[in-house]
Amino acid sequence: MAAMNRLLRSPSSSLSLARRCLSTAAASETVKSQPYIHTPLATGQDPKAKTVQWVFLGCPGVGKGTYASRLSTLLGVPHIATGDLVREELNSSGPLSKQLAEIVNQRKLVSDEIILSLLSKRLEAGEARGESGFILDGFPRTVRQAEILDEVTDIELVVNLKLPESVLVDKCLGRRICSECGKNFNVASINLKGENGSPGMSMAPLLPPPQCVSKLVSRADDTEAVVKERLRIYYDKSQPVENFYHSQGKLLEFNLPGGIPESWPKLLEVLNLDEHDDKLSAAA
């Protein structure tokens, strides 16, 4: 827990490292209903030269990892998912691996202290490699985590991805993993009719290649009852976090209009990144 202790108690160690690596001016105005305005790039400047400190929020199954990963490639900053940090530690011989294994086996929630310890270690490793920013995926999940994160770095923008609950349930129930190659797919075909003036929505399934079809498995906890309970818990905990960042003028609420082909260009537009056509084609 040394990394966690440094994170919480010593402004001269991991905090200062993270600040030197990730420091930037916070957004100064609310971005809920307008494009995110960032400093324009000079002519010919690579968008990867810009430092960003962004957080992606959203319900389970909304696609945080997909869009955060694409923007990570486009902007040249790491995509850091706390779930990945936990899995990496579980598969290592690190000091927290045994403790994490017990927590997972007992189906308990990983504590803030452990999550922040893993994040602190990841930020320090990134600083040593010369990383100049990040996109956090699914963290923070509580106001306490958000407050501690504020002590580590200046979050510039928080993108809150949204989908109707019925779509989220269908997407979660459609998730499949190839038991051989480990890749993720989704067999759900979303066709939501528009009602009361709201537009409809369609999302094509993400189908596996022929060699994976017979090897697809679903998560044991991807049942309708479990998915709805996870969503209920998320809504209860997420609203205070959204309010926390909204009060700071950093929250951008983005309603996904469809699948990746429809949503990706719109997301780039509100982030004011659509002018880099040569880079976007490479990221897509």
From TrEMBL:
CDD domains listed in its UniProt record: ADK (cd01428)
KW Cytoplasm (keyword) present: no
One GO location term (cellular component): plastid
UniProt keywords (A-Z) are:
Kinase, Nucleotide-binding, Transferase
Which major enzyme category is it?
Answer: transferase
The EC number on file is: 2.7.4.3
Could you name the domain of life of the organism this protein comes from? Eukaryota
Q: Where in the cell is it found?
A: Plastid
Which GO molecular function entries does the Swiss-Prot or TrEMBL record give? AMP kinase activity; ATP binding
HAMAP family cross-referenced by the UniProt entry: Adenylate_kinase_Adk
Provide the assembly information.
Monomer.
Family, similarity comment: Belongs to the adenylate kinase family.
What is the recorded name of this protein? adenylate kinase
